[in-house]
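Figure-free illustration: sequence to structure, shown twice.
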Amino acid sequence: MTRLAEAGRDHYRTRMPRWLYHPVLAGSDLREVETLLEDLRLNTVCRSAKCPNRMECFSRRTATFMILGGICTRNCAFCGVPKGVPQPLDPEEPERVARAAAALKLSHVVVTSVTRDDLPDGGASHFAATAQQLRERLPGATIELLVPDFRGDAEALMLVLEERPEVLNHNLETVKELYSRVRPGADYRRSLRLLELARTYDPGVRTKSGVMVGLGETREQLRRLFRDLAAVGCDMLTIGQYLRPGREQLEVERFLSPEEFAELKEEAEEAGIPAVASAPLVRSSYRARELMENKGKEGRKVVDRESDQGGRKC
């Protein structure tokens, strides 16, 4: 049995290529994860952003937790997460995330968030509190934090890095030339600078980013993006097909073939990015542990998180 990738299905039923059809995975684990998230009143980017892989991930007993509430303060033209005026932070949310991760027996935990420009630190302290709770309940797990740009606030970023996540992830999302249309509230150079600062402050952290294709970018623009990421020491990159989550978001300009994704992977690696996942349904946190382990084996030297006590600088 197959299903159409859910994002954009009402607009692209006749245009979606065959490689965007994939099997439905369901069962007791899927129901257990959904029930757990509902009982603990937790958001996931899987559901909020209408990720096409969420059924598979839930069935594999994984989820990407989304903190800082469910309302974003920015209005990115590609994103299906609700926008508007957010509610005050829930101080118990970090503990509930850790409870859910422990119940799922996760070995690698991915935490992301909406963007909260209304908060003085952009939500950095909430990220830090969540990482603290995860360390207490799952001391053997690795942690990946997929953070917003904190409006370029280096102190906010350092507050997050003080908790020593194994992976610091921040998505560029698209090429520089499309930012004004796709990410009007963001800045391409500011996002690159965040990744560069992360490696400067903590040389042991593995940095990661993600981009979507099919929004009208050119191949040369993508090559420049790959070189820019390599120049700031980005360790891991995910490349996936943009799928329109609803009628209010940008339309898909083009569907790239699996062969083109394979070519993009080669070009990104040639540019100097050690670990690259590139396929139509790849998303930033999809099979995140596998990509992290691939980088650890084949990429730049990985600093031991326990023995590395120095080397940081602001």
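We now fold a second protein in the same way, so the two outputs can be compared directly.
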Amino acid sequence: MTLSTIILWIIIGGIAGLLAEAVIKGVRLGLVGAVVVGILGALLGGWLFGILHISIGTGLISDIITALIGAIILLVLLRSLRRSW
């Protein structure tokens, strides 16, 4: 894994996390939290799309969309956990 790959993950994670925060109201994570949620969302989205045999293409835009969908799912779960406590 190269440094440029790690930087790209952070950038995609940040974009996806910030977009997911804008979509899902009531969850404020800050920049670092948004990057973490975006990266975890990318992993979740990639896994979920693989399980469901969904392909939205290749490239940077499809990576951001996949990460965004996964991040939205994570934020919905996080918000519902916070409300139940």
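Summary for the second example: Residues 3-84 form one domain.
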